Amino acid sequence: MQTTHPEDPTVGYPGISKLRDQMMIMDTAPKWPKKPRFRLKEPFLKEIVQAHFDKNPHAIDVNISSFSQFDALLNNFTLKYQGKPLNAICEDLGLNIKDNKGVVEKVMAKYFGSNEAKLKNVELFSKVGIIPKSITLSPNGKRTEDMKFDSVDFDEWTENETFEESAIFDYFSNHNFVFLIYEEAYKNAPLKKNKFIGFKRIMFDEDFVDRKIRDLWTTVRNLVVNNELKEEYIRLKKTGEIRYTPTTNVPMTRVNFPKSTENIAFLRGTGSDAAQKTEMVNGIRMYRQYFWLRGDFMVDLLDKIDYL
DNA sequence: AATTTTGATAGCGGAATGGA
DNA sequence: TCCATTCCGCTATCAAAATT
């Protein structure tokens, strides 16, 4: 752009917003058409502070400073293991793993040089605000599940007055997401048989965050602030009988948070079992809540992106 | 150092829904 | 009407953190 308009840097501004997902340590704000300022990405600053206090003894330094290098590292993994089932990859990496749900993450952590099970212990990821997520496609490339993200801190959610100050805004706006994409060997195949397909890296579209995530934030916030949360029994539609959970034999209940039927972004609870509902909001005891995005939306979104 | 609790990841499973 | 898909509260598992 400089070569065509060296005297007028503003002509390049629209392109800067488009370059956001290429920039690892810097970011620009606000976005086009407003005049951009440069700033350090917030997760990077946090990591610098953390490193100072040596909070992260397991972190390794793979010495990567740009996304093209990062992408290349992921591409090497893809070239080696594309189409291979998870158990074969484990074997090749020297990981002795039973059929458990932690494998997906453990494999990646190992590849990035950490023997820890958690990818968040890999400094590279936290340093530059990369959030890894795995997604499994059905044999015909459709969604198998919806996607769970972070848990909800209701104090934070209601304390902040504006969406732009909220944690969920920061989560979706200021982070890169790397998706580890797997495909089922056959319908409902066990996890370790799933084939590794590849990586995709995205930043969520500003417009999507501003509409869908803002909707979720506003709706949930209003429900809690206005004390409009309600819990009700789940009843069988045919007979009207109350449903009971299979393991704890407690009545199943629902809370009137946004559901996946009405919204791409919604809340869903999680916990050890129905007898252990630890969260308390508006006097209602409930599972710890997480925000989710619909699986079909995620698959559509990723379909538009190229593999690394 | 051993044990318990918490919480994060990823997915299960039974009922409702929808298409052929 | 049958069967596949979707919905959504619930659950298996593991490891980190807290507690003893």
TrEMBL record:
Keyword annotations from UniProtKB, A to Z: Endonuclease, Hydrolase, Nuclease
Gene3D superfamilies xref list: DNA mismatch repair MutH/Restriction endonuclease, type II (3.40.600.10)
InterPro entries tied to this protein: DNA_rep_MutH/T2_RE_sf, Restrct_endonuc-II-like
Superkingdom field: Bacteria
Molecular function in Gene Ontology: DNA binding; endonuclease activity; hydrolase activity
Name of this protein: Uncharacterized protein
